[in-house]
Specification:
Length: 424
Amino acid sequence: MLKSNKVLKMPDGFLWGTATAAHQVEGNNINSDWWQWEQKNVGKILDVKEKKFRNKKFEPSGLACDHYSRFEEDFKLIEELGNNAHRLSIEWARIEAEEGKLNLAELEHYRQVLESLKNKKIKVMLTLNHFTLPSWLADKGGWTNFKSPFYFNRYATFVAKNLGHLVDFWITINEPEIYMDMSYMSGFWPPQKKDIKLAGWVYFNMARAHKKVYKNIHKILDKKGHKTQVGFSMNVMSFASYRKHNFWELFFVHAADRIVNHSFYDLTKKSHDFLGVNYYFRVRLKKNEGSLIPAVDEVHEDESELSDMGWVVYSHGIFDVLMDFKDFNLPIYITENGIATEDEDQRAKFISNHLAEIHHAIQAGVDVRGYFYWSLLDNFEWDKSFGPKFGLVAVDRKKKTRKPKESFYAYQKICQTNTVRPVA
Ligand code: BGC
């Protein structure tokens, strides 16, 4: 674990960015499964795991941050941050609002969005699927449908053929394991199923879809001397046993690491040009007396710092997971890392200390090439509505005006100088 507070220099050419997702920031994503689900839940009392946001009223995404019409203003903020890259998602429910039909007006919109980034010399990392689905596909069973990889590939083809020249990195699917869990196992997200068989189909079809689109994007966009970069983003957790030497807990840690952190890579072998790592927290696994299923989310006596989501803040975990992924011998991008907090010192410290651990991993030989803070703006946090504040920039809920927070300037200093100093 890092003790010194020396200034650490990141490698030349390191990518600095922030990450967003269409549905969380754009607003009016009316042809998506999430939009439909939200309308049924307006004003309901939130039944979420995270204590701080429980018992509040659910507010639907609505205009969200109105990024759809304010993207220029937001990209100016990115420039001001000194970023040279940005991760965003394109919305399937807009591009293909009607089954099989490419929506030309929406295509034109995204052309303008991506061109705006290109004109500012900001590299584009584009996610094709960040949790939401077009309603027509949700009605056909979404990712449980055996043909879903075919549908996904048809949409990806529209995007790659028309906008591919504006994209530097492709993320096919964001966090397949989180989607499978939240939508088909714990049942918090649409379609709110708790069905292990369906969950299995979802995961399997997402893996098929990733492989198909990986091949197809290469076929469409690779040119002599230029290989396009395609990967996916995984929510990678740092697992630890509650008790240091407890046999069962150590076994759970190993199994959880294989299933949660590695299984999607195993299912999609040879279909990644880089690894996209989303890291947020450490999970302690504790043996439950009389049960084979361990208790998760156990906060150890040693760890008192939590985010507003109740997640354990543990910067060294990012070093651990990066060291584990070293064996893949692929470039790694931290495609998300961030904290929900209203305490700006806590956010700035979180960023610096995670970056210092990333620096440490680079020193230890891991090929980390970029970092995208989650998120640029306070946004719509899925089933928790607008409660959690992950942004470097606050958004007025009514007027939609933007206000950079203190951590915006702390991150700006890091990006502009390509250096970071850990905070004790
Ligand atoms: C997701 C984001 C989400 C963030 C914070 C990530 O797992 O990709 O959409 O907002 O976590 O919960």
